[in-house]
Design goal:
Elements lengths: L5 E4 L6 H9 L10 H7 L3 E6 L4 E10 L2 E4 L16 H14 L2 E6 L12 E12 L4 H6 L3 H11 L4 E4 L3 H10 L7 H17 L2 E7 L5 E10 L2 E9 L1 H6 L1 H13 L5 E3 L6 H8 L4 E11 L3 H4 L5
Parallel strand pairs: 10-11
Antiparallel strand pairs: 1-2, 2-3, 3-4, 5-12, 6-11, 6-12, 7-8, 8-9, 9-10
Helix pairs in contact: 2-7, 5-9
Length: 306
């Protein structure tokens, strides 16, 4: 395997069937790395491919000041090398990556090994939270934190209504009115494209919570790929937060899927309060890494981002 060619392939020359077969057959498979998700998450992505698609690494590309660089798109938490590579293979990928690009800022998946002895590459650990749901609801509920159980008791008294399959239009309107982080019009359009295609493929669904007055107060877009369900995008308004609507929604989703061979991927958070919220459902941490490499010309090298 070590002597197989590692090629840099432009987007238009990538064999999407072989690509998606490689991802689907990888132990570390994730929806983010599928050709169809990447096509909707970013304008252009190239790739490093070893052999006949035995190992692959997607490379979302941007260009600024005439410099082409690798970045991490929104709505695409982890990328990296698929399937899980031996250390020698990972070294080859990282070496070629740094030979082609002068600036890289991407997030590799939880099964990729950081190569610490390559001094020019920085690996920074980040945290995701996941919850296997292959036990009864009673078993899952018993692992909830005391605070989560208390919040769910309060939510149950608020006459909330859980609805699966709310419309994309209703969700985007609600999302736009309750942004926690500023998104541009272009980024909202990209989110719309991702969700619309997920709904078309039958892999994605939007769940919502309505108040007793029939007003949407919390919603989540879940995307399923193989046995992993990703909590990919969410929104809540002030009323929803007061009523505990998001905890109510997640608990109802867990009830619906308890006992199935599924893993709920919360997409984690480095924000302590958000991480505590996910941990409250019995989710446990999973570490992945940010890979950063900067060999820009000196006047640009000290900029945090380009």
């Amino acid at each position: 395997m070590k002597n197989e060619p590692l090629r840099y392939i432009k987007h238009q020359d990538i064999d999407s069937k072989k690509w998606d077969s490689c991802i689907a057959n990888s132990q570390n498979r994730q929806v983010y790395a599928t050709s169809w998700h990447l096509d909707h998450a970013t304008e252009i992505w190239d790739a490093l491919v070893m052999g006949d698609y035995k190992f692959v690494m997607p490379l979302p590309i941007k260009s600024k000041w005439g410099i082409k660089y690798v970045f991490q798109p929104l709505f695409c938490q982890q990328l990296g090398i698929y399937p899980t590579p031996p250390e020698e293979i990972a070294k080859q990928f990282y070496l070629v990556l740094t030979q082609i690009f002068r600036y890289v800022d991407t997030q590799i998946n939880s099964q990729n090994t950081p190569i610490q002895h390559q001094n020019d590459i920085e690996f920074t650990s980040r945290r995701n939270y996941i919850l296997p749901m292959n036990m009864s609801y009673a078993g899952l509920f018993s692992a909830y934190s005391t605070n989560t159980k208390r919040n769910l008791k309060k939510a149950e008294k608020n006459s909330l209504n859980f609805v699966s399959g709310i419309s994309l239009e209703d969700y985007l309107e609600f999302k736009s009115e309750n942004l926690q982080v500023t998104l541009s019009k272009k980024e909202l359009e990209r989110l719309k494209s991702i969700i619309a295609f997920g709904q078309y493929k039958g892999t994605g669904k939007i769940y919502g919570v309505y108040t007793s007055g029939n007003e949407l107060c919390a919603a989540v877009y879940f995307c399923r790929y193989e046995n992993r369900v990703t909590y990919m995008n969410a929104a809540s308004d002030k009323r929803g937060k007061e009523l505990g609507a998001m905890a109510f929604l997640i608990d109802k989703f867990i009830q619906q899927n308890a006992g199935k061979n599924l893993v709920l991927d919360f997409e984690g958070s480095m924000i302590p309060g958000v991480a505590r919220f996910y941990k409250g459902f019995g989710a446990y941490p999973e570490t992945y890494f940010q890979l950063k490499y900067n060999r820009l010309p000196l006047p640009l090298r000290w900029l945090k981002r380009i």
